[in-house]
Design goal:
This is ABC transporter ATP-binding protein. By secondary structure, the chain is of the alpha/beta class. It is built from 10 helices and 10 strands. The chain has 2 domains: 175 residues, Rossmann fold (3-Layer(aba) Sandwich); 74 residues, no CATH class. The longest helix is centred in the middle third of the chain and has 20 residues. The chain binds adenosine-5'-triphosphate.
Length: 267
């Protein structure tokens, strides 16, 4: 299934007196890896939470593959083919790697909970199918060797990859990756970049990426949107963004001693 295109126009959101997003336009092409960057508090999470239906914009509109929506609804995300990963690892600790990945297909299950308990023919067929797809995705992400292990016994980087596998198993059209490299070693980041690229090439999925590591952003993204103080200040290719004076000002104007944001746009 091809990746989805998404366009947000004039999106505004506030929390009490704080204007988190001020008339933001966002134009994401189908099949692109599109990063949303900006200094702390710029509005990145707010924007992603609007795309995931967690927040309803006060003004503005959303077009998802030509469908005009006043807001996204969390209940419809799976149907639209939207999945996400989270900043902090969210896995079922006691379960195996394969079981965790199979969980990414539960919304597609047609057997009833009762059928699953008594092991009806349909439930068994669906489980066998999910197991087969999970094993195939795990192989693509180089996780075959650990597929039967309890997920919490894996390294941090491998757990992040399991999350990616779970997000990919249902064949999403839009994948939101919230800091997929957070806490990873340099070597793990290099591998993760290759796996995200492979996922995009394999299925054509559109990827929205929030990531603080500018080296990763510049290497992985087709296009980048830059937010600052809730406003979109730039959108373009990595080479355009790296030399954009407004972007350089926004990053250099903010002290980020702790997260390295100001370290290098030109990474
Ligand atoms: N639930 C909330 N309640 C109140 N204010 C909020 C809430 N969420 C975000 N904000 C405020 O909205 C603004 C944008 O925050 P947001 O988290 O979207 O930025 P961000 O770019 O994701 O930041 P970071 O890189 O630090 O995660 C900030 O001023 C923030 O303090």
């Amino acid at each position: 299934m091809a990746g989805a295109a998404i366009r947000l126009s004039g999106v505004t959101l506030s929390f009490g007196g704080i204007l988190a997003l001020k008339g933001v336009d966002l134009d994401i092409h189908a099949g692109d890896i599109h990063a949303i960057i900006g200094p702390n508090g710029a509005g990145k999470s707010s924007l992603v939470n609007i795309i995931c239906g967690i927040y309803r914009p006060e003004a503005g509109s959303i077009d998802f593959d030509g469908q005009h929506l006043s807001r996204m609804e969390t209940g419809r995300l799976a149907k639209l083919g939207i999945t996400r990963t989270f900043q902090n690892i969210v896995l079922f600790k006691g379960m195996s790697v394969t079981q965790n990945v199979m969980m990414g297909l539960t919304h597609k299950t047609r057997s009833t909970p009762w059928g699953q308990i008594i092991g009806s023919a349909r439930a068994r067929r669906e489980e066998a199918h999910a197991y087969e797809i999970a094993r195939a995705i795990l192989a693509r992400l180089d996780l075959t060797q650990v597929q039967d292990r309890a997920v919490n016994t894996l390294s941090y980087g491998a757990q992040k990859r399991v999350e990616l596998a779970r997000a990919l198993i249902a064949g999403p059209r839009l994948l939101l990756l919230d800091e997929p490299m957070a806490g990873m070693t340099a070597g793990e980041k290099v591998r993760m970049i290759a796996f995200i690229r492979e996922a995009q090439a394999h299925s054509g999925v559109t990827v929205i990426l929030i990531e603080h590591d500018m080296g990763v952003v510049m290497e992985l993204s087709d296009r980048i949107t830059v937010l600052d103080h809730g406003k979109r200040i730039a959108q373009g290719t990595p080479s355009e963004i790296q030399v954009n004076p407004d972007v350089i000002d926004a990053y250099l104007g903010v002290a980020h001693a702790d997260d390295g944001d100001d370290a290098v746009l030109a990474a």
